[in-house]
Recover the amino acids of this structure.
C-alpha cells in the first residue's frame, strides 16, 4: 500500500509533466504560426486568366484574391486585365492580390447628362449600363442646386475604358454669411434699422421689465452678437418694458 508521501510525490511529478507538455505544445504552435506568417512567396501571373482560374492560381501559392474594379477591355468578360502586386513580387502568404476584371468590349454610348438633376442622371446612366463615378460640387449662382453642369466622359463617348461617369453638380448660389451686430442698448427703431441693413429679418419682439435700463432699449437678442448668420436669417429681440 502506498504511503501518503509517495502518493503526493507522484501527484507533483504528474502535474509538473503536464505543465512541461503544455508549454511545449504552446511553443510549437507559436513557432509554427510565426513560420507560416513570416513565409514569403512570389506573386504568380494571373493577367489574362479567367477570374476562377486566377483565384486557383493564387490559392496554389497560399494567396487570396480581391476584385478591385471592373473595366471595359478587349478581353472577354471576367478575365483579369490588371493585377497588383506585379508578377514576381515577394509577399507574405495569405495576403490578397488585387485584380481588375474585364467587362468585355464597350457596347454603350455615354448619354448627355448636363442640365439633368443628379437623380435623373443616375437613372440615365443605369439604363445605359453605366454607373455614377466621382461626384464633385460647386456653388454657381447661374445654375440651380442639384443640377449636373459637367460630365466626364462627354456625351456619345464610346471608348471610355470604365463604366463610370464623373459628374460636376451645382450647389446653387453660395449662402452669404454675416456677423451678427451687437444690438444691446439700442432703441427699438435703431435696432430695426441695423437688422434691415444687415440683410436680416425681425421675427419676434418680447417686452420684459429691466430695472435700471432705458425703457424701449434692447436688453438681449437671438442670435447673440458676434455669431455668424446667413442672409435672411431671423432675429428675436428682448426689449425693456
Amino acid at each position: 500500500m502506498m504511503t501518503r508521501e509517495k502518493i503526493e510525490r507522484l501527484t507533483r511529478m504528474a502535474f509538473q509533466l503536464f505543465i512541461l507538455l503544455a508549454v511545449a505544445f504552446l511553443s510549437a504552435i507559436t513557432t509554427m504560426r510565426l513560420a507560416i506568417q513570416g513565409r514569403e512567396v512570389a506573386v504568380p501571373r494571373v493577367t489574362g486568366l479567367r477570374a476562377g482560374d486566377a483565384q486557383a492560381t493564387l490559392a496554389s501559392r497560399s494567396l487570396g484574391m480581391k476584385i478591385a474594379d471592373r473595366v471595359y477591355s478587349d478581353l472577354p468578360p471576367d478575365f483579369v486585365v490588371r493585377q497588383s502586386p506585379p508578377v514576381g513580387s515577394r509577399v507574405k502568404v495569405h495576403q490578397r492580390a488585387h485584380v481588375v476584371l474585364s467587362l468585355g468590349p464597350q457596347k454603350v454610348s455615354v448619354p448627355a447628362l448636363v442640365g439633368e438633376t443628379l437623380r435623373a442622371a443616375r437613372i440615365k446612366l443605369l439604363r445605359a449600363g453605366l454607373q455614377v463615378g466621382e461626384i464633385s460640387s460647386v456653388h454657381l449662382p447661374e445654375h440651380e442646386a442639384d443640377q449636373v453642369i459637367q460630365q466626364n466622359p462627354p456625351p456619345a463617348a464610346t471608348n471610355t475604358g470604365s463604366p463610370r461617369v464623373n459628374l460636376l453638380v451645382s450647389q446653387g448660389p453660395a449662402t452669404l454669411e454675416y456677423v451678427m451686430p451687437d444690438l444691446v442698448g439700442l432703441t427699438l427703431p435703431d435696432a430695426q434699422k441695423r437688422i434691415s441693413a444687415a440683410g436680416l429679418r425681425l421675427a419676434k419682439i418680447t417686452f420684459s421689465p429691466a430695472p435700471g435700463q432705458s425703457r424701449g432699449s434692447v436688453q438681449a437678442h437671438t442670435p447673440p452678437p458676434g455669431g455668424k448668420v446667413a442672409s435672411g436669417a431671423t432675429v428675436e429681440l428682448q426689449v425693456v418694458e
